[in-house]
Amino acid sequence: MFESVQYWDPAAQFVLFSALKILVVFGATLTFVSLAVVAERRVSAWIQDRVGPNRVGIPFTNIRFLGLGQMLADGLKFLLKEDFTPNYVRTVYFWLAPAITLIPAFLTLAVIPFGSTLGNPNNRMVIANLNVGILYTFGIVSLGVYGIVLAGYASNSKYPFLGGIRSSAQMISYEIAMGLSVIPIFLLVGSLNLGDVVGYQSGGLHTWLVWKQPLAFFIFLIAAFAETNRLPFDMPESESELIGGYHTEYSSMKFALFFLGEYANMIASCSMMVTLFFGGWTPPWGAEAATTLWAGLGHVACFLAKVISMMLLFIWVRWMLPRFRYDQLMDLGWRRFIPMALFNILVTAFVVALWQR
Amino acid sequence: MPPLTDLLFYVFAGLTLACGLLCVVNPFSRNPVTSAMFLVLTIVSMAGLFILLHAFFLAAVQILVYAGAVMVLFLFVIMLLDLREEERRRIRTFSLGTGALIVVVVAGLLVRVLSGAVPVRPTGLGVEGHTKILGRILFEQYVLPFEVLSLLLLVAMVGVILLSKKDMK
User: Fold this and answer.
1) Which of A78, A182, A280, B9 has its CA 20 to 30 A from that of A341?
2) Cα A78 to Cα A67, A253, A256, A259, A344, distances in angstroms
3) Residues of chain B found within 8 Å of residue A132, distances taken between Cβ atoms
4) B43 — contact with chain A (CB < 8 Å)?
5) Does A142 sit within 8 Å of B67, measured CB to CB?
6) How far apart (Å, rounded) are the C-alpha atoms in residues A92 and A335?
């Protein structure tokens, strides 16, 4: 069955493999999102010395599976709840906003190399091997703010509106710090292609860019917290001030889409960090592109393990740190991180110009 | 059947024109937020046209800068100002006249440029090395205009700081 694919037209092969990759990445991301929600609840419970949702397993039996059935139960709850639309909202935007939040998160994943190959050197494990990969990512990430802003606007009520305004200011500010923080990486690598960035780091643990660019990683990590609206920077939805922020008026599946969007964004930025700073799919002892199916699957597993570790870091930070004040957030973004990132670019540029070329 | 790229060109060109038109003269709504969102769609479909010309860098920057940053700020300002009276405002003769004048001038310019242009197929550079080539051209051939432009931006920035500072110390 699989042998005959080799004799197809290259274009047809490309379409088939791309479609397969898109399906797999999409499915894997959705699964990861629901796992992340359960993980978030369990980890937060451990941190706060509670038990957490550990009951739901297979119905009518005593098999609990660490409470992993919770993700199905959560999903069902969201689907079956009443989808209520308040009658004073701006309907078109009210319906569009959740979708606009979710789409960019998934689009970002298209350029992330999540593995080397599965044996065939012509079929790389990345959906779109773009030469401007990182610019594409930042472009799409910057579109993500529309969903939140429009949700705040469409809800036509004060708390969502404040959430939307806060979010747009916050995301624009931290996008600049984030964009500036990765420039040194590309000065070192000499290419905007994410595959080349991984290739640069394929020599093993000591070649990972996080050792050469710790400042860049630090800025990127904190900007990622702000971009994904996670604590300590979750001002757009801070419960104690804005009830639920931009999604106050949303219920049922539309609310769930915002939720999915937040976690999909988290996965996207974790994958980005793994690719830029932690060697992508390469194992810590270094590796060339895989030549066999099993080695290829091992690389994918390595990538997933790194992404999961980053996700756990995100969850850990959320439950350990208190929320910033809004002026502190702006101060940190504009007056600390942007000068720091500029300084980092200058130093790296000098080092590259003097020693590497 | 025309090649896929030609088909995509007509799709993106049509989208650009339609969204641009809906941004300015939308018969269904005079809501400034709707106009801004159509402008975002115009910018995104123009990025699609750039991709068809193999200008990937330009397309990415177009989305990053215009759709991602400039338009978000537009939206931000529209929301803060809460331009509700904009929905009821009548069309003024003066603005209509100026608009028509600008359209005529720009259309004239476009016709002049297009009549002198030689149609060239995008050279098949593929996805390789575009950014590097662009950088070389910017910093070697056009370094003076580039620096002058950045100076212009600096002037604008200084101006903004001057205007927003209430009392000078």
Assistant:
1) A280
2) 18, 5, 6, 11, 45
3) 56-57, 60, 130-131
4) no
5) yes
6) 38
